[in-house]
Amino acid sequence: MEKILVANRGEIALRIIKTIKKLGKKAVAVYSEADINSLHVKNADEAYCIGPASSASSYLRGDIIIETALKAGVDGIHPGYGFLSENAAFASQVAKAGIIFIGPTAESIDLMGNKIAARETVRKQGVPLVPGNKNTLTSIDQARIIAAEIGFPILIKAAAGGGGKGMRKVMFMEELESQMERAQSEALASFGDDAVFVEKYVSSPRHIEFQIMADHHGNVVHLFERECSIQRRHQKLIEEAPSVVLSEKLREEMGNAAVQVAKSCQYRGAGTVEFIVDENLQFYFLEMNTRLQVEHPVTELITGLDLVALQIAVAEGEKLPFTQEELSIKGHAVELRICAEDPFNQFLPCTGVLKTYRPPVMENVRLDDAFIAGMEVSIFYDPLIGKLIAFGDNRNAAIRNLLEAIKRFDITGIETTLPFGKFVCEHPKFISGEFDTHFIEKYFTPEQINETYAEDALLASKIALNLFLQDKEKVKFMGT
Ligand code: ADP
Ligand code: ADP
Ligand code: MG
Q1: Residue 274 in contact with ligand 2 by CB distance below 6 A
Q2: Which architecture does CATH list for 206-447?
Q3: Above 90 in pLDDT, residue 456?
């Protein structure tokens, strides 16, 4: 491929464009009217407007994007994450237009995009699943029978689910009907499909996922795990690699299971197999995401690989340049998602202009973002501003680097998750590795952020006072 169109926006579009250019290829950006001044547009070799601000009229318009790709004469389309990345129809239309879709086949996307179908496929491979039912729930009576079999609490999940949507925890039989209705209507509104199923609710789970990479010649490897247990609304906020709870043996077992899952759908390209792990370190398959993941940089930092470059290479038909045995973990990486959300107010998304935007420049710290001061975080898109990723020889060093980077990052004009990141990096339970997906509910209150900030402010004022007094001494001294 010589010229690749990036069908996305924001930090991920910019990150993909960087690799395309590094490989000596030409990058084509597409943008909505709201994104005309975006960095992904400025950094591409060519850029085309594809419609008004709303995603439905621009970044989700597969037809316009393919038309643009043909006009620009590209050989490949990289979909990034979100938007059309897991849209099987788009993948097949791209291929029909004679353009390489940098991702798996439409069939793999289709199969793994439906959680019920995915569960049935991996069940046949002997991969452990969270106890649950096999088909779409058709009636409340059927749901009652299944719930009684599995035992409460249960989770009702959308078959087409993603981004933590369409998921409802049910504690008692009495609330089953109302929660099932809610899950169905949320699923219909978010995914245009109201199919739901039941899973046992694992009470103290950790979210641990494996990065997969597969070529077109039947070679599949995993690039180790990422732990993503620090979540709000079933969505990740902090991710790290490796996980503190995996022994070499468990890593190998889960890694093999993840490779099995990929093989079960003839997977190719980069993908992620998600598991939950319970208190007894039993692991269960959750789902497979058939795309590049938001948190892929932590894997890049501990393996030294460029996942986007690998995606492009395998899409071009190249063989994987390594075997499983040749891969190893070096050091530790931790990532904070910097979202335009207010941690003092239930992580509600906020919008506005970034009055100040001064990122830290530090060794062992990587920033994937797409903003400069004066730009606006708008209501039209995901509230992700960027990702701050720290590396260290060990976990403590990585956490320390992330904490230092957070402290040096100056953003004003809009609330962000930076203060939350600081809270986590300083929390004894995070530092000791004893946490699960309920970390936020268990330990986090906005008052505590204020407390740590108050301590910092007090310290800063003491230092300032000290410096002032020292200066006064000097002045006095010089005056005598
Ligand atoms: P990851 O594990 O990569 O973080 P997420 O589930 O958080 O996966 O989703 C990644 C991105 O994709 C987010 O920007 C999210 O809003 C978006 N997303 C996830 N699922 C869907 C979906 N079904 N439809 C549209 N966007 C989605
Ligand atoms: P999505 O497609 O929205 O990402 P997932 O199935 O990957 O949905 O689940 C998202 C998150 O929800 C998980 O990381 C975990 O925190 C929680 N979750 C999902 N299934 C269960 C379960 N059976 N028990 C407990 N928590 C779960
Ligand atoms: Mg998931």
Answers
A1: yes
A2: 2-Layer Sandwich (3.30)
A3: no
